[in-house]
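Section 5.1 Outputs to date
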Amino acid sequence: MDWYALLVAAVAAERVGELVVARRNERRSRARGAIEAGRGHYPAMVALHTALLLGCPAEVWLADRPFVPALGWSMLAVLAGAQALRWWCIATLGFRWNTRVIVVPGLPLVARGPYRVLRHPNYVAVVAEGVALPLVHTAWVTAVAFTLANAAVLTVRIRCENRALAGVVPSFGSVPA
C-alpha cells in the first residue's frame, strides 16, 4: 500500500504541475484577448478529480484491496500512457492548453500532434487515467464511480468546448483541450 500511496501522490503532484502550467498559459492567453467559457462546470470537475485522488488510497486501505499483478502492472502501463498522452497534448497546444476553456479569438485550430487524429485527445487521457489509477490496486468501486461521474462532467465539458470551437461563443476561433 505504501508504494501505491506514493503513486497517487505522484499523480497529485503532476496535477499541481498542470495547474501551474494552466495559470501561466491563462495569463499568456488573456494578454492576447482570450475569453473564458464554461466556468460553471469547472468546480465540479475539480471536485471529481480530487475525489479520485482521495478515493483510490482510501478504498485500498478501507476495503483491504489486494494488488493483483496481472491487473496492476497492466493498469500501471495504461496510466503511464495516459500521462504521456496528456503531456503530448499540453506540448502540442502550447500556451493555448488549459484546465479551463480559455479561448483566444482568431487563432486557427490546432491540427498537429494528437489533434491530427482526435478532437479531444486530452480526455482520452483523463478517461484512461480514471480507470487505470484505481485499478492499479484493484480499487474497482472508485474506478466505476469516477468513470460514471466523469462521463457526466465530460459530456458538459466537451459540449462547451465544441460550442467554442464552432464559434457559438462570440468570436471564438480556437479552444484548448
